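Supplementary Text 2. Reproducibility record for the structural model of the 178-residue chain.

All settings were left at their defaults, and a single model was retained for analysis rather than an ensemble. We include the record here because the model underlies the residue-level annotations in Supplementary Table 4.
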Amino acid sequence: MIYHALHTVANELNDYLVARFKVDGHRAAVVNSIVVQDGSIAENSRNQMVLSLINLEYVISKSSNRKNHLTKKPANVPYHFNLDVLITAVFEAPNYDEGLKYLSETIYFFQAKNIFNGDNTPSLDNHIHELKFELINLNEHQRQSLWGAMGVRYMPSVVFKVRTLSFEARASDLSSIS
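Retained model, structure tokens:
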């Protein structure tokens, strides 16, 4: 479900950026890591906006501790997660300034469409009720820690908290589990 949520949003952003900048035959937004294991920029991330999952936060709900009144066992309740998504303009010299244009348009895109649901995003998986994008402001220490952990120098970027992705198995989902 994480895969589908991020790819659906990336495809929507891609369509917007491609139309805005009239780029033919080139992706403008992808879900990917910025760097590969050796620390170099991932080739398939260059000159585009890259969406990367940087944190998966389990949200403890009040219903998490509910018990089945007949068996006194905890009931199976959905798991709820918030996603922290880094959106980076991976544009190196001489295209750095182009990356700033793409980043600005990306911010406009999420300001205009900060909620994705079945009504405004028909390609969204029917297991996903809604994705709400909220801009996160990282302080200097958090930003340095993030980029240091990734092993790459800072690139122009924004971070969004995406609320809330819920995992709840349906009987049909469990038919292959014995």
